[in-house]
Amino acid sequence: MSMHFFFACIFLASLAAIVSDRPDTVSNPAGSYYTGVYHNLFADLLGLPDSIVDAHINSTFQQLFYGDDSRERVYYPVEPDMAYIEDVNNKDVRTEGMSYGMMICVQLNKKPEFDRLWKWAKVYMQFQEGPHKGYFAWHCRTDGTVLDPTAASDGEEWFVTSLFFASARWGNGEGIYNYRKEAQIILNTMLHKEAEPDHGAVTNMFDQKEKLVTFVPNVDGARFTDPSYQLPHYYELWARWADRDNQFWCEAASASRTLLRKAADSLTGLSPDYSQFDGRPIIGRFGGHDDFRFDAWRVAMNVAVDYQWFAKDSWAITETNRLLDFFRAEGVDTYGNQYSLEGKKLGSDHSTGLVAMNAVACLVSTREYRKEFIQALWSHPIPSGPYRYYDGMLYLLGMLQVSGNFRIYHLTPSPTQGCIEK
After folding, report:
1. Gap between the Cα atoms of 313 and 54, Å rounded
2. DSSP letter assigned to residue 123
3. Where are the alpha helices (DSSP H) in 179-335?
4. Which pTM does this prediction carry?
5. Do 237 and 408 contact (CB within 8 A), yes or no?
6. Which candidate, 333, 225, 236, places its Cα nearest to that of 281?
7. What is the pLDDT, as a whole number, of residue 6?
8. pLDDT value at position 84?
9. Distance of CA 70 to CAs 94, 141, 254, Å?
10. Is residue 266 a contact partner of residue 327, using CB atoms and an 8 Å limit?
């Protein structure tokens, strides 16, 4: 298919979708935060029984957490009471994987594994003094040696929300297992690092003016962002549950949705790995991260889960439709894993992690063919081998989200109004 013909098809599909993109066409217009409804698309679209879906999710967890040491697992216990998630291809431990692992554990009610991961992160990754105090080193060796003291902002974001959910689901314990207190400490550091007298070149994790999460909290990395770090649905929860700065988190949710809208290409729906605060891709500085590459796979998940939970911006429907239109034209079972924003293929591998993220987009999309993307995820084998870390984490998160098992655990007795869009 020529690109001119493809874009013509996208334009016509966009016109045809104007009516179907209304938010009242989705099955849960009020948002799961208020209704408590989370749809299982494997059941709704493929007719699979809940028991079969649950068994597959459990098998995935067992393989990634307790499978063969060299080919299957990414979770490695350190006796007596710690564990880490390893990026086995790069032979390191990343806050991304640790925080994803914790979120997976709280969603699946795996408290022992959650606590092991959290203690390893606290002991080896979180700085207890110095300019980085309160932040987590973004990657370490498996023996805990810090490889780079810089924090990666998405790790802290997922740590905070998984700790809040753990507090709601299991209650708070003593010391580092007072999950709610630990979440608050991280939140305060993220927003008030520059108020500390010894912060040096380490900055806040959110830009105070733009209300957007930064790529990394230092004087250089705080000047731009990563669209896949935009988690407005998490900020909505922080606005309700944080001990302070509640209005800021409301404004951050709104700013984040605006950034996601600006960063996505208006024809393909693809977003860059890194962008300016106005959504423009950063060109020339970071070796191709102005394109749709591995970070950007996750944007579809963030857009879809945000709309599923809070239903704030119906653009999410337009965006997920546009994105799935593009990948369907590329071939549901054959599309590549990297593209220019205009749709030129840059990588031919058909990666499991991207298959999972595109399936999550189906939570919001109104396209009749979305079951093809759900079937693609269901049929895809559980990741194994050297790339099982990133593919595996996204695969399991995607399975949880598509099956309706990625849920909010409420810290308040009932849903509250929270943020009101201006």
Report:
1. 31
2. I
3. 179-192, 232-241, 246-263, 299-310, 315-330
4. 0.93
5. yes
6. 225
7. 46
8. 98
9. 19, 17, 43
10. no
Which domains does the chain carry? Answer: 23-71+246-422 (1.50.10.10), 74-204+214-223 (1.50.10.10)
pLDDT in tens, 216-246: 999 999 999 999 999 999 999 999 999 999 9
Contacts of residue 393, Cβ cutoff 8 Å, sequence gap at least 6: 64, 74, 85, 96, 97, 100, 101, 104, 353
Could you write out the three-class secondary structure of 247-285? HHHHHHHHHHHHHHHHHCCCCCCCCCCCECCCCCECCCC
Dihedral of CA atoms 287, 289, 293, 295 in degrees, nearest 10, equals 120
Distance, CA of 399 to CA of 46 (rounded, Å)? 14
| Residue 275 bridge partners (DSSP) | 225, 281
- Among 415, 411, 400, 405, smallest CA distance to 164 is for 411
Q: How far apart are CA 67 and CA 74, in angstroms?
A: 8
Q: Compute the distance between CA of residue 180 and CA of residue 163 in angstroms, rounded to an integer.
A: 6
Which residue in the block uniquely carries the two structure tokens 């749809």?
39
Residue ranges in 67-178 assigned as alpha helix (H): 95-107, 111-120, 153-170
Q: Under a CB-based contact definition with an 8 Å cutoff, are residues 251 and 189 in contact?
A: no
How long a stretch of residues is the chain?
422
Q: What is the average pLDDT across 36-53?
A: 97
**Which uninterrupted H or E stretch holds 380?**
none
- At position 132, the amino acid (one-letter code) is H
Helix (H, G, I), strand (E, B) or coil at 406: coil
Token output for 183: 């979440």
Query: What amino acid is encoded at 170 in this protein?
Result: W
- Catalytic residue numbers read 96, 295
Alpha-carbon distance 37 to 4, whole Å?
Answer: 41
